[in-house]
Amino acid sequence: MKKRLGIIYHSSIFDERRGFIEHSRSLYDEIIIIHPERVIYEYRRDSVYPLMWMDGVSLNDLSMVYFLEYGDCTAQQLLLLLGNLEKDGCPLSTGLERFVHCYNGITDNIGKCYELLQTKGSNVRTNSYLIHSRAMVDETLAMAEKNGDFPLLNKPINGLGGMGIQKLKTLTQARQFILENFDEGERIILLERFIRFVKEWRVYIADNNIICAYEKHAGDNRLLKNLSRGGKMMPIEEDFEYVEEFLLKALPQDCRLGLYGIDVGLSESNHYHLIEINTVFLYRNVLEVTHVDLPRQAVQILAERARILT
């Protein structure tokens, strides 16, 4: 019996992901770095999934695959690989459904896209909207106005660390901005309801287990912001049990299995909100602040789902 691990990550941030690789060496017999753009597929009539090869190495008998970064592949190449791995029965570190939600322009029906964003299996409604095409703009904004979600934030979904966020106060302003800046086929528009938070936390979770968390502070500015934009990480001192209780109830059903960095906020009206679920995240200085070795604990939890093949 042999356990083989596949890892998808971008070589430019190897140091950031080194911990996941190093801590996995004692849990797996072999580690393969996967480049989705180099995978070759051999389709068969008698099987629902193809044979998959990369540089002569079979990917059909992997025990598990970690997705740690987007790499050099396109969204289509990534989805093709992950979809076929899932059909082959290979456990993934992040649920395939989350990738479909974020990447794939699968529909021009706003109702369907809105449904995909809902926190399934919980009593929490998301205040987010996805736009895949110009045809969806008017209907999406009308739904946001009907739900009372203005003002909205237009947020890049490609990990820009808080850059490029635009506050859209009215439907008219939002429509004009989106139509002027939407490059059809090149990007997806993500809109979120603007909420002023008095506290915000980043929580790291693996397979429904909270590993560690820290509180975000504004640093040299009154407004909370990303670490890359001057925000500060602070140890959690109080009230986190309420965050844990909220998060485990609010977490979408398709995130019950997987590795995520999740942002939770407490609004001025004293309500908790699920802000973002990040499938790719940075964790610099997390050990220093939380005293928890995030990669070590994450890979140990994920390894419980790994399959053993003969």
Automatic annotation (TrEMBL):
Gene3D superfamilies: ATP-grasp fold, B domain (3.30.470.20). Keywords: ATP-binding, Nucleotide-binding. Residues 114-303 form the ATP-grasp domain. The keyword ATP-binding applies. GO terms for biological process: SOS response. GO terms for molecular function: ATP binding; metal ion binding; ribosomal S6-glutamic acid ligase activity. GO terms for cellular component: cytoplasm. The keyword ATP-binding applies. InterPro entries: ATP-grasp (IPR011761), ATP-grasp_RimK-type (IPR013651). It holds the Pfam family RimK. PANTHER family: BETA-CITRYLGLUTAMATE SYNTHASE B-RELATED, RIBOSOMAL PROTEIN S6 MODIFICATION PROTEIN. This is ATP-grasp domain-containing protein.
